[in-house]
């Protein structure tokens, strides 16, 4: 797994466990909601490395 995909995989996993909305989780982690959406694509294997 690429470093970028691993990074996002961990965030998506933590977000799912948090019970927060994507927006709230992203803000807490200092991520933009746009980058969080990109991270979702990475986890599914659809982002560019």
Element-level helix/strand string: HHH
Strand fraction: under 5%
Unreliable stretches (pLDDT < 50, length at least 5) are none
Major β-sheet, in short? none
SS elements, strand count: 0
The tally of domains stands at 1
Measure the end-to-end span.
Answer: 11 Å
Number of helices: 3
Q: What portion of residues is helical?
A: over 70%
What is the structural class? mainly alpha
How would you state the average pLDDT, rounded?
Answer: 88
What is the CA-atom radius of gyration, in angstroms? 10 Å
Shape: globular
Structural summary, described in words:
This protein has about 50 residues and is an all-alpha fold. It has one domain (about 5-45). The chain is about 70% helix and about 0% strand. It has 3 helices and no strands. The protein has helices at about 5-20, 20-30, 35-45. Helix 1 crosses helix 3 (about 35-45). The longest helix has 16 residues, at about 5-20. It is globular. The N and C termini lie close together (about 10 Å).
Q: Outline of this structure?
A:
This protein is mainly alpha-helical and 49 residues long. The protein contains three helices and no strands. It has helices spanning 3-18, 22-29, 33-43.
Name the descriptors:
single chain; 49 residues; mainly alpha; 3 helices; 0% strand; globular
């Amino acid at each position: 797994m690429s470093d970028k995909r691993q990074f996002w995989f961990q965030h998506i996993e933590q977000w799912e466990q948090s019970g927060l909305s994507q927006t709230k989780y992203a803000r807490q982690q200092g991520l933009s909601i746009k980058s969080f959406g990109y991270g979702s694509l990475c986890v599914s294997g659809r982002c560019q490395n």
